[in-house]
């Protein structure tokens, strides 16, 4: 066991504060990672505020981890000391169910994936996330950060990147496809970059035109404000695919009206409240309303290689650990451009 410094929420809705946690001894197939950077995902806030239901406290959030391997177990074959690596939203799963075998570990049916924090590990101990100086993770749940990507802009790819890449690929975003990204925060801005790199015609649907210039620079072809009712008239029946990254409940009926026949609205946002929907909005024109959760380990590696190949990471604002609580407030106010990343040396 090693004692490491971390930032934790001591209880639901309490501000995060500096503390120390224990990391397990490095096992046969484990890597010890010196965490360099940790992204702040809106899911961290939902969980630290217990917005999704009962959570485990103290909670060390953080599932967008980039760092360097400091030690490897005797059985480790994939990584060596000094390698640049990442860890995303899960640190284990059953490894035996059909989904795990198919590389869909995030949908493990053998007890579910083990979250990087706010979960119980196989040894029964709570998991603690990336707002800390070191983490011990099984090599099979660790990915390699390609040389071309700096660790700070790579960190957010471990959740925001894969969560948008996976549905964009699954639902066929590419040349000839009109794709809308709903909400341009941490996930949304990665959705814009990735959909553009995949060759789709990309539209941002944001609450206002405040971030229009940025959106067009990131690769969007069009940018509309959803606060303007004319947007819904003008864009009715336009899109093959809409990916919603919005963290709050929305009128999905209005957004389904923007799909073509056979179009799909894929939701990745995880609001704390349910929505209500008139089902006529999917019956007409055979529309799909779907969801998607992060991506598997192999797909996460594929996404990192894809982003590095296209020469981009996330757009980030680097902060010190002492600024985490303020950053949470700014995320809640949709005032993030476009991901806060903690320099973990400041913990
Ligand atoms: P974020 O940076 O806060 O971005 C969310 C964006 O949604 C905001 O920037 C804003 O975009 C828009 N928005 C927020 N409140 C809104 C409202 N009341 N009405 C309309 N639009 C609103 O959050 P994030 O880190 O990208 O995460 C987004 C959501 O995805 C969260 O709920 C998170 O928990 C969830 N998530 C899910 C997965 C998954 O696997 N499915 C993975 C990661 C995160 P504009 O300013 O452009 O309007
Ligand atoms: Zn996340
Ligand atoms: Zn499984």
UniProtKB/TrEMBL annotation:
Source taxon at top rank: Bacteria
Gene Ontology molecular-function annotations: alcohol dehydrogenase (NADP+) activity; zinc ion binding
Domain Enoyl reductase (ER): 14-342
EC id: 1.1.1.2
Cross-referenced InterPro entries: ADH-like_C (IPR013149), ADH-like_N (IPR013154), ADH_Zn_CS (IPR002328), CAD-like (IPR047109), ER (IPR020843), GroES-like_sf (IPR011032), NAD(P)-bd_dom_sf (IPR036291)
UniProt keyword terms in alphabetical order: Metal-binding, Oxidoreductase, Zinc
Cofactor(s) named in the record: Zn(2+)
Record CDD domains: CAD1
Pfam families, per database record: ADH_N, ADH_zinc_N
Catalysis: reaction(s): a primary alcohol + NADP(+) = an aldehyde + NADPH + H(+)
Top-tier EC class: oxidoreductase
Family: Belongs to the zinc-containing alcohol dehydrogenase family.
Protein name: alcohol dehydrogenase (NADP(+))
Protein's organism: Streptomyces cupreus
